[in-house]
Amino acid sequence: MKLLIMSDSHGWADEVVQVVDRHKHEVDELIHCGDSELQVDSKELSGVKTVKGNCDFGADFPEEIKETYGSLTLYVTHGHHYNVKMTYVPLSYRAEEVGANLVCFGHSHVADCFMEQGVLFINPGSMRLPRKPKEQTYVICDITDTEVEVSFYERVSGEKLTDLSRTYSR
């Protein structure tokens, strides 16, 4: 299974479409971790599973998404309710509560992925206003029975950022 994961596009519509169009034929699911600042019925987010971020005022997105695909339980949230700019502990507790083994979140504008207690956490960074690294990023996550490959990409060029990308055993 392959997931396209993006976050924090903050009002950009054409740029979201460019990323989706670049990868839509190679992925199984499209995920936006919030702060799209688009409307729930916007054509740019058609087919994209999107959660509500702290800047999505008036939008009717869900606060969280939980999906199960075989042995994979995916949990998506923006992260602002879990204080992810300071610590990952509340988010890890929520992952445990919902039985997730893959957690996607945004909010901090910091691209990162890490494994903790058998749960893989992915923050694709910000498509519009990155804090770290300086590149505008998104993720393609390729999940097999034995491993998960997390590949970060630069938004404009679509170039893979190998220094950020990681592979984890399942």
From TrEMBL:
<protein>
    <recommendedName>
        <fullName>Phosphoesterase</fullName>
        <ecNumber>3.1.4.-</ecNumber>
    </recommendedName>
</protein>
<dbReference type="InterPro" id="IPR029052">
    <property type="entry name" value="Metallo-depent_PP-like"/>
</dbReference>
<feature type="domain" description="Calcineurin-like phosphoesterase">
    <location>
        <begin position="1"/>
        <end position="145"/>
    </location>
</feature>
<keyword id="KW-0479">Metal-binding</keyword>
<dbReference type="Pfam" id="PF12850">
    <property type="entry name" value="Metallophos_2"/>
</dbReference>
<dbReference type="GO" id="GO:0046872">
    <property type="term" value="F:metal ion binding"/>
</dbReference>
<comment type="similarity">
    <text>Belongs to the metallophosphoesterase superfamily. YfcE family.</text>
</comment>
<dbReference type="GO" id="GO:0016787">
    <property type="term" value="F:hydrolase activity"/>
</dbReference>
<dbReference type="InterPro" id="IPR000979">
    <property type="entry name" value="Phosphodiesterase_MJ0936/Vps29"/>
</dbReference>
<dbReference type="InterPro" id="IPR024654">
    <property type="entry name" value="Calcineurin-like_PHP_lpxH"/>
</dbReference>
